[in-house]
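Entry 14. Structure prediction run on the chain below.
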Amino acid sequence: MARGQTSVASHGLTPALVTRARAISDEHTDLTSRLASDFDASAAKKLGQLARTSSALKEYEQAQSALGELQSLLSSSDEELRQLAEDDVEPSRERLANAIRDLKASLIPEHPFAHLPCLIEIRPGAGGDEAAIFAGDLLRMYQAYCARNDLRTALMKYETADGIVDSPGAYAEGSQDMGESSFNDPNSDYYVRPADVKTDFMRAQGAGGQHVNTTDSACRLTHLPTGMVVAIQDSRSQPKNREKAWSLLRARIAQMRREEREAEIVNLRRGAGAGKVGRENKVRTYNWSQQRVSDHRSGFDLRNLDNVMEGGEALDRVMDSVRTWMSEQEVLGLVAEDEEKTRSGKPS
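Output returned:
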């Protein structure tokens, strides 16, 4: 059953997705009529959010109808008409395939972090010095990628290679390789109650001259409910270290909360052939002897490792393949959730 669902989601549209799209299109039509007589800012904003799906559904239905008409002409007794239909069938099939792809993409809710900066954390795995060297290579790879794409970066903590890409929209670019929201909003993933955090200031450790031994500039934050600890001593300024530590703590707490929510629906998505890839899973292989990069989620192989490690266009191709894969998983998740609602009698 899961295999069949995957095939449908990959090459066509399930009834559940079409139903969802038509409901959105109907809402778009209703809002358009309402705004024609009485403007409302929130309704206008909602209208803009629904417009993409409404337009994509219209194109899908037109492409489907056009292909159906051509296929009916293939059995025509008029040879000239039949030949014209045969010439147009393949372009019409391509048009329909594109329309299906666009409609599925329009149904995927925008990620709540998509417009925000992206935190990238690189940790050496098993392998000692060799693993640490490779972690450094990855850090430089992402820094080069960001520089080539005009994305600003800031290295927050080199000890564990936590970096932040602080350009707006960077999360959408980097989320497939592993944000900051309003942390004053209690409903935000980034909200952390100050009362839940223990703050310690101490003298920085390691080389650094007399200042290291005389100023309590290092900051350590402990999130009491989870036991999560973040320590920053990069700057000589205590306030700057504290600010960095809070940013890193909020990002880690937000990621943890997001993973907890994803875990709640992972069984549904597995039922539709869509599994979650977490930190425990091997997602990519870098093979120097074969000059090969393999992404195990998208199934994409590329033999241009040097360019990948330079943050070049080859890395774009790898990341694009994963971006496409992630979109497909989102569609499968939507199918699973809609089918579960149908079985339980809940409205979509």
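Residues 1-11, 178-183, 271-280 have pLDDT under 50 and may be disordered.
Filed with the rest of this week's runs.
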